[in-house]
Design goal:
The chain has about 500 residues and is an alpha/beta fold. The chain has 15 helices and 29 strands.
Protein backbone atom coordinates (compact mmCIF):
# COMPACT_ATOMS: atom_id res chain seq x y z
CA UNK A 1 0.00 0.00 0.00
CA UNK A 2 1.19 3.51 -0.83
CA UNK A 3 2.57 5.41 2.17
CA UNK A 4 1.32 8.68 0.70
CA UNK A 5 -2.23 7.47 0.10
CA UNK A 6 -2.26 5.86 3.55
CA UNK A 7 -1.15 9.18 5.06
CA UNK A 8 -3.90 11.07 3.19
CA UNK A 9 -6.50 8.61 4.48
CA UNK A 10 -5.12 8.91 8.02
CA UNK A 11 -5.21 12.71 7.94
CA UNK A 12 -8.71 12.60 6.41
CA UNK A 13 -9.93 10.50 9.33
CA UNK A 14 -8.13 12.45 12.08
CA UNK A 15 -8.51 16.00 10.74
CA UNK A 16 -10.86 15.90 7.72
CA UNK A 17 -11.25 19.67 7.31
CA UNK A 18 -7.52 20.48 7.33
CA UNK A 19 -6.52 21.98 3.98
CA UNK A 20 -4.32 19.64 1.95
CA UNK A 21 -4.03 21.45 -1.39
CA UNK A 22 -4.74 25.05 -2.41
CA UNK A 23 -5.08 26.13 -6.02
CA UNK A 24 -5.66 29.51 -7.59
CA UNK A 25 -9.44 29.37 -7.02
CA UNK A 26 -10.18 26.21 -5.04
CA UNK A 27 -8.94 24.39 -1.95
CA UNK A 28 -9.24 20.73 -1.02
CA UNK A 29 -9.29 19.48 2.55
CA UNK A 30 -7.91 16.04 3.32
CA UNK A 31 -11.34 14.35 3.31
CA UNK A 32 -12.23 15.80 -0.09
CA UNK A 33 -8.78 15.04 -1.49
CA UNK A 34 -9.09 11.39 -0.46
CA UNK A 35 -12.49 11.11 -2.15
CA UNK A 36 -11.41 12.90 -5.34
CA UNK A 37 -8.27 10.80 -5.74
CA UNK A 38 -10.24 7.57 -5.31
CA UNK A 39 -12.83 8.65 -7.91
CA UNK A 40 -10.21 9.68 -10.45
CA UNK A 41 -8.28 6.45 -9.90
CA UNK A 42 -11.44 4.49 -10.63
CA UNK A 43 -11.86 6.38 -13.90
CA UNK A 44 -8.29 5.56 -14.85
CA UNK A 45 -8.87 1.89 -14.16
CA UNK A 46 -11.89 2.00 -16.46
CA UNK A 47 -9.91 3.66 -19.27
CA UNK A 48 -7.01 1.19 -18.75
CA UNK A 49 -4.08 3.22 -20.13
CA UNK A 50 -0.67 1.55 -20.12
CA UNK A 51 1.26 4.79 -19.44
CA UNK A 52 -0.10 8.27 -18.67
CA UNK A 53 1.60 11.50 -19.72
CA UNK A 54 0.83 14.63 -17.69
CA UNK A 55 1.28 17.93 -19.53
CA UNK A 56 0.00 20.82 -17.43
CA UNK A 57 0.97 23.82 -15.32
CA UNK A 58 1.27 23.52 -11.56
CA UNK A 59 -2.18 23.35 -10.00
CA UNK A 60 -4.69 21.17 -8.18
CA UNK A 61 -5.36 19.12 -11.29
CA UNK A 62 -1.69 18.22 -11.70
CA UNK A 63 -1.55 16.93 -8.14
CA UNK A 64 -4.84 15.03 -8.46
CA UNK A 65 -3.71 13.33 -11.67
CA UNK A 66 -0.40 12.33 -10.09
CA UNK A 67 -2.05 10.87 -7.01
CA UNK A 68 -4.74 9.11 -9.06
CA UNK A 69 -2.07 7.34 -11.12
CA UNK A 70 -0.37 6.32 -7.88
CA UNK A 71 -3.69 4.92 -6.56
CA UNK A 72 -4.51 3.13 -9.83
CA UNK A 73 -0.97 1.69 -10.10
CA UNK A 74 -0.48 3.17 -13.58
CA UNK A 75 2.95 4.54 -14.63
CA UNK A 76 3.03 8.34 -14.99
CA UNK A 77 5.35 10.49 -17.10
CA UNK A 78 5.41 14.17 -16.02
CA UNK A 79 5.98 16.20 -19.22
CA UNK A 80 7.73 19.58 -18.84
CA UNK A 81 5.62 22.36 -20.36
CA UNK A 82 8.72 23.91 -21.95
CA UNK A 83 9.44 20.80 -24.05
CA UNK A 84 9.31 21.47 -27.78
CA UNK A 85 6.78 19.53 -29.91
CA UNK A 86 9.66 17.39 -31.20
CA UNK A 87 10.78 16.60 -27.63
CA UNK A 88 7.22 15.76 -26.58
CA UNK A 89 6.69 13.49 -29.57
CA UNK A 90 9.97 11.70 -28.86
CA UNK A 91 9.05 11.27 -25.18
CA UNK A 92 5.56 9.95 -25.98
CA UNK A 93 6.92 7.22 -28.24
CA UNK A 94 9.96 6.40 -26.09
CA UNK A 95 7.79 5.91 -22.98
CA UNK A 96 4.81 4.34 -24.75
CA UNK A 97 2.39 7.01 -23.50
CA UNK A 98 -1.13 6.15 -24.70
CA UNK A 99 -3.08 8.70 -22.60
CA UNK A 100 -2.23 12.38 -22.13
CA UNK A 101 -3.87 14.47 -19.41
CA UNK A 102 -3.40 18.13 -20.26
CA UNK A 103 -4.48 21.74 -19.82
CA UNK A 104 -3.40 22.53 -23.41
CA UNK A 105 -5.47 20.27 -25.65
CA UNK A 106 -4.79 22.14 -28.89
CA UNK A 107 -1.03 21.73 -28.52
CA UNK A 108 -1.45 18.08 -27.52
CA UNK A 109 -3.68 17.14 -30.49
CA UNK A 110 -1.04 18.50 -32.84
CA UNK A 111 1.35 15.85 -31.52
CA UNK A 112 -0.73 13.05 -33.04
CA UNK A 113 -3.26 13.15 -35.86
CA UNK A 114 -4.76 9.85 -34.65
CA UNK A 115 -5.55 10.89 -31.07
CA UNK A 116 -9.06 10.51 -29.63
CA UNK A 117 -10.43 13.10 -27.19
CA UNK A 118 -12.07 11.43 -24.18
CA UNK A 119 -14.35 12.96 -21.51
CA UNK A 120 -12.44 15.36 -19.30
CA UNK A 121 -10.43 14.09 -16.38
CA UNK A 122 -11.51 16.58 -13.73
CA UNK A 123 -10.51 19.89 -15.29
CA UNK A 124 -7.87 18.31 -17.53
CA UNK A 125 -8.52 17.19 -21.08
CA UNK A 126 -7.81 13.56 -21.88
CA UNK A 127 -6.33 12.47 -25.20
CA UNK A 128 -6.03 8.79 -26.08
CA UNK A 129 -3.14 7.96 -28.40
CA UNK A 130 -2.49 4.83 -30.50
CA UNK A 131 1.11 4.66 -29.28
CA UNK A 132 2.74 1.22 -29.50
CA UNK A 133 3.60 -0.34 -26.12
CA UNK A 134 7.17 -0.37 -24.83
CA UNK A 135 8.78 -2.61 -22.23
CA UNK A 136 9.19 -0.99 -18.80
CA UNK A 137 11.04 -2.38 -15.79
CA UNK A 138 8.68 -4.23 -13.49
CA UNK A 139 7.28 -1.97 -10.79
CA UNK A 140 7.70 1.31 -12.71
CA UNK A 141 5.45 3.94 -11.14
CA UNK A 142 6.95 7.09 -12.64
CA UNK A 143 9.28 7.94 -15.50
CA UNK A 144 11.17 11.18 -15.01
CA UNK A 145 13.51 12.61 -17.58
CA UNK A 146 16.98 13.63 -16.40
CA UNK A 147 17.97 17.19 -17.15
CA UNK A 148 21.08 15.97 -18.97
CA UNK A 149 24.02 18.39 -19.05
CA UNK A 150 25.09 16.93 -22.39
CA UNK A 151 23.11 15.09 -25.04
CA UNK A 152 19.46 14.04 -24.91
CA UNK A 153 17.69 13.52 -21.58
CA UNK A 154 17.17 9.94 -20.42
CA UNK A 155 13.97 8.47 -19.04
CA UNK A 156 14.58 7.26 -15.49
CA UNK A 157 12.15 4.60 -14.26
CA UNK A 158 11.29 4.84 -10.56
CA UNK A 159 9.28 2.59 -8.24
CA UNK A 160 6.57 3.77 -5.86
CA UNK A 161 8.46 2.37 -2.88
CA UNK A 162 11.66 4.12 -3.91
CA UNK A 163 10.00 7.53 -4.26
CA UNK A 164 8.08 7.17 -1.02
CA UNK A 165 11.18 6.05 0.86
CA UNK A 166 12.91 9.27 -0.22
CA UNK A 167 9.83 11.34 0.70
CA UNK A 168 9.67 9.85 4.20
CA UNK A 169 13.39 10.45 4.81
CA UNK A 170 12.93 14.03 3.60
CA UNK A 171 9.98 14.56 5.92
CA UNK A 172 12.17 13.64 8.88
CA UNK A 173 15.25 15.56 7.73
CA UNK A 174 13.41 18.81 6.97
CA UNK A 175 11.26 18.71 10.10
CA UNK A 176 8.06 18.92 8.02
CA UNK A 177 4.91 19.02 10.17
CA UNK A 178 1.16 19.56 9.90
CA UNK A 179 1.47 23.30 10.49
CA UNK A 180 3.60 23.84 7.39
CA UNK A 181 2.42 25.70 4.30
CA UNK A 182 4.48 24.81 1.24
CA UNK A 183 4.50 26.89 -1.94
CA UNK A 184 5.37 25.06 -5.16
CA UNK A 185 7.89 27.26 -6.96
CA UNK A 186 9.54 24.75 -9.30
CA UNK A 187 7.43 22.93 -11.90
CA UNK A 188 5.88 19.75 -10.50
CA UNK A 189 7.26 17.98 -13.57
CA UNK A 190 10.64 18.42 -11.82
CA UNK A 191 11.18 15.33 -9.67
CA UNK A 192 12.57 17.38 -6.76
CA UNK A 193 9.38 19.44 -6.47
CA UNK A 194 7.17 16.40 -7.08
CA UNK A 195 8.78 14.43 -4.23
CA UNK A 196 9.69 17.19 -1.77
CA UNK A 197 6.97 19.73 -2.61
CA UNK A 198 3.94 17.45 -3.00
CA UNK A 199 4.59 14.08 -1.35
CA UNK A 200 6.43 15.34 1.74
CA UNK A 201 3.72 17.84 2.82
CA UNK A 202 1.03 15.18 2.30
CA UNK A 203 2.95 12.71 4.46
CA UNK A 204 3.20 15.40 7.16
CA UNK A 205 -0.45 16.47 6.97
CA UNK A 206 0.60 19.94 5.83
CA UNK A 207 -0.87 22.29 3.24
CA UNK A 208 0.55 22.86 -0.25
CA UNK A 209 -0.25 25.86 -2.46
CA UNK A 210 -0.07 25.07 -6.18
CA UNK A 211 -0.05 27.98 -8.64
CA UNK A 212 0.94 28.37 -12.30
CA UNK A 213 4.42 29.76 -12.86
CA UNK A 214 3.31 33.19 -14.02
CA UNK A 215 1.47 33.70 -10.73
CA UNK A 216 4.72 33.41 -8.78
CA UNK A 217 6.97 35.36 -11.12
CA UNK A 218 8.24 32.61 -13.43
CA UNK A 219 8.25 32.91 -17.22
CA UNK A 220 9.22 29.94 -19.39
CA UNK A 221 12.13 27.82 -18.19
CA UNK A 222 14.47 30.59 -17.01
CA UNK A 223 12.70 33.97 -16.66
CA UNK A 224 12.01 35.21 -13.12
CA UNK A 225 10.50 38.27 -11.43
CA UNK A 226 12.02 38.03 -7.93
CA UNK A 227 9.82 40.72 -6.38
CA UNK A 228 6.70 38.91 -7.55
CA UNK A 229 8.05 35.61 -6.22
CA UNK A 230 8.68 37.16 -2.80
CA UNK A 231 5.14 38.58 -2.89
CA UNK A 232 3.80 35.09 -3.68
CA UNK A 233 5.71 33.58 -0.75
CA UNK A 234 4.26 36.26 1.54
CA UNK A 235 0.72 35.92 0.18
CA UNK A 236 0.81 32.15 0.67
CA UNK A 237 2.24 32.56 4.18
CA UNK A 238 4.68 29.91 3.01
CA UNK A 239 6.81 28.19 5.61
CA UNK A 240 8.73 26.19 3.00
CA UNK A 241 9.69 26.30 -0.67
CA UNK A 242 12.30 24.81 -3.00
CA UNK A 243 14.61 26.84 -5.24
CA UNK A 244 17.37 26.26 -7.77
CA UNK A 245 20.50 28.42 -7.25
CA UNK A 246 19.54 30.98 -9.89
CA UNK A 247 16.24 31.67 -8.14
CA UNK A 248 17.99 32.06 -4.79
CA UNK A 249 20.43 34.53 -6.34
CA UNK A 250 17.52 36.52 -7.77
CA UNK A 251 15.75 36.64 -4.39
CA UNK A 252 18.94 37.73 -2.63
CA UNK A 253 19.34 40.55 -5.16
CA UNK A 254 15.72 41.64 -4.55
CA UNK A 255 16.19 41.63 -0.77
CA UNK A 256 19.36 43.69 -1.14
CA UNK A 257 17.31 46.19 -3.14
CA UNK A 258 14.84 46.54 -0.28
CA UNK A 259 12.03 44.09 -1.07
CA UNK A 260 10.65 42.77 2.25
CA UNK A 261 11.55 39.19 3.09
CA UNK A 262 8.81 36.57 3.59
CA UNK A 263 7.71 36.53 7.19
CA UNK A 264 6.77 32.87 7.66
CA UNK A 265 9.60 30.94 6.00
CA UNK A 266 11.28 28.32 8.16
CA UNK A 267 12.82 26.05 5.49
CA UNK A 268 14.00 27.19 2.06
CA UNK A 269 15.63 24.24 0.29
CA UNK A 270 18.11 24.85 -2.53
CA UNK A 271 19.26 22.16 -4.94
CA UNK A 272 19.50 21.07 -8.55
CA UNK A 273 22.98 22.56 -9.06
CA UNK A 274 25.95 23.60 -6.86
CA UNK A 275 25.56 26.74 -4.75
CA UNK A 276 28.30 29.11 -3.64
CA UNK A 277 28.80 29.03 0.16
CA UNK A 278 29.11 32.82 0.05
CA UNK A 279 25.66 33.08 -1.57
CA UNK A 280 24.21 30.85 1.17
CA UNK A 281 25.87 32.98 3.84
CA UNK A 282 24.54 36.18 2.26
CA UNK A 283 21.03 34.70 2.04
CA UNK A 284 21.18 33.77 5.71
CA UNK A 285 22.42 37.27 6.60
CA UNK A 286 19.34 38.67 4.85
CA UNK A 287 17.06 36.44 6.92
CA UNK A 288 16.40 33.59 4.49
CA UNK A 289 16.51 30.15 6.20
CA UNK A 290 18.37 28.41 3.36
CA UNK A 291 19.36 24.74 3.40
CA UNK A 292 21.38 23.23 0.56
CA UNK A 293 20.82 19.65 -0.54
CA UNK A 294 22.02 17.25 -3.20
CA UNK A 295 20.43 14.52 -5.25
CA UNK A 296 19.76 13.06 -8.67
CA UNK A 297 16.87 11.47 -10.51
CA UNK A 298 18.49 8.03 -10.46
CA UNK A 299 18.30 8.07 -6.65
CA UNK A 300 14.69 9.24 -6.51
CA UNK A 301 15.79 12.86 -6.02
CA UNK A 302 17.41 13.93 -2.72
CA UNK A 303 20.45 12.06 -1.34
CA UNK A 304 21.80 14.48 1.29
CA UNK A 305 20.45 17.57 2.99
CA UNK A 306 21.28 20.26 5.52
CA UNK A 307 18.77 20.36 8.36
CA UNK A 308 17.44 22.69 11.04
CA UNK A 309 20.06 22.87 13.76
CA UNK A 310 22.61 21.16 11.50
CA UNK A 311 23.18 23.58 8.62
CA UNK A 312 26.69 24.18 7.30
CA UNK A 313 27.17 26.29 4.14
CA UNK A 314 29.83 24.74 1.96
CA UNK A 315 28.49 21.20 2.24
CA UNK A 316 25.25 19.56 1.09
CA UNK A 317 24.47 18.09 4.48
CA UNK A 318 24.30 14.58 5.84
CA UNK A 319 23.00 11.63 3.81
CA UNK A 320 19.31 10.89 4.32
CA UNK A 321 18.40 8.00 6.63
CA UNK A 322 17.94 5.43 3.85
CA UNK A 323 21.17 6.36 2.00
CA UNK A 324 24.62 4.73 2.05
CA UNK A 325 27.58 6.36 0.29
CA UNK A 326 30.82 5.02 -1.15
CA UNK A 327 33.70 6.82 -2.87
CA UNK A 328 36.08 5.82 -5.65
CA UNK A 329 39.84 6.58 -5.58
CA UNK A 330 39.19 9.81 -7.52
CA UNK A 331 36.39 10.88 -5.14
CA UNK A 332 33.59 9.58 -7.40
CA UNK A 333 30.37 9.36 -5.35
CA UNK A 334 28.30 6.17 -5.37
CA UNK A 335 24.90 5.91 -3.70
CA UNK A 336 22.90 2.97 -2.38
CA UNK A 337 19.26 3.22 -1.31
CA UNK A 338 16.08 3.89 -3.37
CA UNK A 339 17.94 3.47 -6.65
CA UNK A 340 16.16 3.62 -9.99
CA UNK A 341 14.86 0.57 -11.87
CA UNK A 342 16.58 1.36 -15.16
CA UNK A 343 16.61 3.74 -18.12
CA UNK A 344 13.96 3.66 -20.81
CA UNK A 345 15.12 1.47 -23.65
CA UNK A 346 17.80 -0.28 -21.56
CA UNK A 347 17.71 -3.58 -19.73
CA UNK A 348 16.34 -3.47 -16.17
CA UNK A 349 18.99 -2.51 -13.65
CA UNK A 350 20.22 -5.05 -11.09
CA UNK A 351 23.05 -3.11 -9.43
CA UNK A 352 22.82 -1.97 -5.80
CA UNK A 353 24.95 1.15 -6.25
CA UNK A 354 24.32 4.21 -8.43
CA UNK A 355 27.39 5.87 -9.92
CA UNK A 356 26.45 9.56 -9.69
CA UNK A 357 29.20 11.01 -11.87
CA UNK A 358 29.84 13.58 -9.13
CA UNK A 359 33.02 14.02 -7.12
CA UNK A 360 33.15 14.67 -3.40
CA UNK A 361 33.98 13.46 0.10
CA UNK A 362 32.57 13.12 3.59
CA UNK A 363 34.13 15.29 6.29
CA UNK A 364 35.00 14.08 9.78
CA UNK A 365 31.44 14.84 10.95
CA UNK A 366 29.77 12.85 8.17
CA UNK A 367 28.69 15.78 5.98
CA UNK A 368 28.94 15.47 2.21
CA UNK A 369 31.02 17.97 0.22
CA UNK A 370 30.84 18.18 -3.58
CA UNK A 371 33.83 19.19 -5.69
CA UNK A 372 32.44 18.92 -9.23
CA UNK A 373 31.31 16.64 -12.02
CA UNK A 374 33.76 13.98 -13.12
CA UNK A 375 32.99 14.55 -16.81
CA UNK A 376 33.31 18.36 -16.45
CA UNK A 377 36.79 18.30 -14.92
CA UNK A 378 39.43 19.67 -17.25
CA UNK A 379 43.24 19.80 -17.12
CA UNK A 380 44.87 23.11 -17.94
CA UNK A 381 47.90 23.48 -20.15
CA UNK A 382 49.98 23.53 -16.96
CA UNK A 383 48.60 20.18 -15.79
CA UNK A 384 46.27 21.46 -13.08
CA UNK A 385 42.89 19.76 -12.54
CA UNK A 386 40.02 22.26 -12.46
CA UNK A 387 36.32 21.77 -11.60
CA UNK A 388 34.55 24.53 -13.54
CA UNK A 389 31.61 24.60 -11.10
CA UNK A 390 33.94 25.95 -8.40
CA UNK A 391 34.94 28.95 -10.54
CA UNK A 392 31.38 29.52 -11.74
CA UNK A 393 30.08 29.72 -8.18
CA UNK A 394 32.49 32.57 -7.47
CA UNK A 395 31.51 34.44 -10.64
CA UNK A 396 27.79 34.09 -9.96
CA UNK A 397 28.12 35.86 -6.64
CA UNK A 398 28.44 39.16 -8.50
CA UNK A 399 25.29 41.08 -9.51
CA UNK A 400 26.59 41.81 -13.02
CA UNK A 401 26.73 38.10 -13.92
CA UNK A 402 23.52 36.11 -14.42
CA UNK A 403 24.95 32.90 -15.92
CA UNK A 404 28.37 31.56 -16.81
CA UNK A 405 30.26 28.54 -18.11
CA UNK A 406 34.03 28.14 -17.78
CA UNK A 407 36.39 26.35 -20.19
CA UNK A 408 40.15 25.71 -20.21
CA UNK A 409 40.99 22.15 -21.27
CA UNK A 410 44.64 22.07 -22.35
CA UNK A 411 44.84 25.87 -22.39
CA UNK A 412 47.22 28.34 -20.72
CA UNK A 413 44.33 30.14 -18.98
CA UNK A 414 40.58 29.77 -18.41
CA UNK A 415 37.85 31.50 -20.40
CA UNK A 416 34.38 32.29 -19.07
CA UNK A 417 31.32 32.67 -21.27
CA UNK A 418 29.18 35.18 -19.38
CA UNK A 419 25.51 36.16 -19.60
CA UNK A 420 25.12 39.67 -18.21
CA UNK A 421 22.43 40.44 -15.66
CA UNK A 422 19.94 43.09 -16.80
CA UNK A 423 21.91 45.91 -18.46
CA UNK A 424 25.31 45.27 -16.90
CA UNK A 425 28.11 46.93 -18.87
CA UNK A 426 31.36 45.37 -20.01
CA UNK A 427 33.15 47.39 -17.35
CA UNK A 428 30.89 45.99 -14.61
CA UNK A 429 31.44 42.44 -15.84
CA UNK A 430 35.20 42.98 -16.00
CA UNK A 431 35.18 44.27 -12.42
CA UNK A 432 33.20 41.21 -11.32
CA UNK A 433 35.73 38.91 -12.98
CA UNK A 434 38.61 40.71 -11.24
CA UNK A 435 36.85 40.39 -7.87
CA UNK A 436 36.13 36.68 -8.39
CA UNK A 437 39.74 36.05 -9.37
CA UNK A 438 40.87 37.44 -6.02
CA UNK A 439 39.09 34.48 -4.36
CA UNK A 440 40.74 31.87 -6.62
CA UNK A 441 44.24 30.40 -6.93
CA UNK A 442 46.15 31.42 -10.03
CA UNK A 443 45.46 28.25 -12.04
CA UNK A 444 41.69 28.63 -11.55
CA UNK A 445 41.43 32.31 -12.42
CA UNK A 446 39.68 33.67 -15.49
CA UNK A 447 42.17 34.95 -18.05
CA UNK A 448 39.57 36.19 -20.54
CA UNK A 449 35.82 36.28 -20.91
CA UNK A 450 33.23 36.18 -23.67
CA UNK A 451 29.90 37.96 -23.49
CA UNK A 452 27.06 35.68 -24.59
CA UNK A 453 24.58 37.22 -27.02
CA UNK A 454 21.63 35.40 -25.41
CA UNK A 455 20.93 33.75 -22.04
CA UNK A 456 21.51 30.03 -21.58
CA UNK A 457 18.05 28.46 -21.72
CA UNK A 458 16.29 25.17 -22.32
CA UNK A 459 14.90 26.56 -25.58
CA UNK A 460 18.40 27.04 -27.07
CA UNK A 461 19.58 23.74 -25.51
CA UNK A 462 22.24 25.53 -23.41
CA UNK A 463 20.61 24.99 -20.00
CA UNK A 464 19.05 22.03 -18.21
CA UNK A 465 15.68 22.43 -16.42
CA UNK A 466 17.59 22.34 -13.11
CA UNK A 467 19.76 25.28 -14.12
CA UNK A 468 22.97 23.50 -15.07
CA UNK A 469 24.83 24.71 -18.18
CA UNK A 470 25.02 22.32 -21.10
CA UNK A 471 28.71 22.82 -21.70
CA UNK A 472 29.05 21.17 -25.07
CA UNK A 473 26.22 23.28 -26.52
CA UNK A 474 27.67 26.51 -25.09
CA UNK A 475 31.18 25.65 -26.28
CA UNK A 476 29.84 24.94 -29.78
CA UNK A 477 27.81 28.17 -29.95
CA UNK A 478 30.76 30.25 -28.74
CA UNK A 479 33.61 28.28 -30.33
CA UNK A 480 34.96 31.11 -32.48
CA UNK A 481 34.83 33.65 -29.66
CA UNK A 482 36.49 31.28 -27.17
CA UNK A 483 39.20 30.42 -29.66
CA UNK A 484 39.70 34.14 -30.28
CA UNK A 485 40.55 34.60 -26.61
CA UNK A 486 43.70 32.57 -27.12
CA UNK A 487 44.90 34.44 -30.20
CA UNK A 488 47.78 36.92 -30.11
CA UNK A 489 45.43 39.57 -31.46
CA UNK A 490 43.15 39.23 -28.46
CA UNK A 491 45.99 39.86 -26.05
CA UNK A 492 46.76 43.15 -27.79
CA UNK A 493 43.20 44.50 -27.73
CA UNK A 494 41.32 46.02 -24.85
CA UNK A 495 37.86 44.54 -25.40
CA UNK A 496 35.86 41.38 -24.85
CA UNK A 497 34.44 39.13 -27.56
CA UNK A 498 30.77 38.39 -28.24
CA UNK A 499 29.31 34.99 -29.06
Amino acid sequence: MSRILTAIARHAAANPHAIALEGASESLDYATLSTRVAALAERLRAIKPRVVGLLAENGLDWALADLACLAADIPLVPLPTFFTPAQLTHTIHQAGIDLILTDRLDASTRLSSDGTVLPRFGKLDALRLPTPPVALPQGTAKITFTSGTTGAPKGVCLSRNGMETVAESLRKASGAHAGDRHLNVLPLSTLLENIAGLYVPLLAGASTRLLPGESIGLAGSSGVDPARMLDALNAAKASSAILVPQLLLALVAALRAGTPKPANLRYLAVGGAPVSPRLLTEAERLGLPVFEGYGLSECGSVVALNRPGDNYPGCVGRPLDHVALAFGPDGAIRVSGAGFLGYLGDAPRNATWVDTGDLGHLDADGRLHLTGRRKNMFITGFGRNVAPEWIERELLLHPAIAQTAVFGEGRPFNVAVIVARDKATDAQIASAVVAANLELPDYARIGAWVRASAPFSASNAQLTPNGRPRREAIASACADAIEGCYSLEYAKEDHELLC
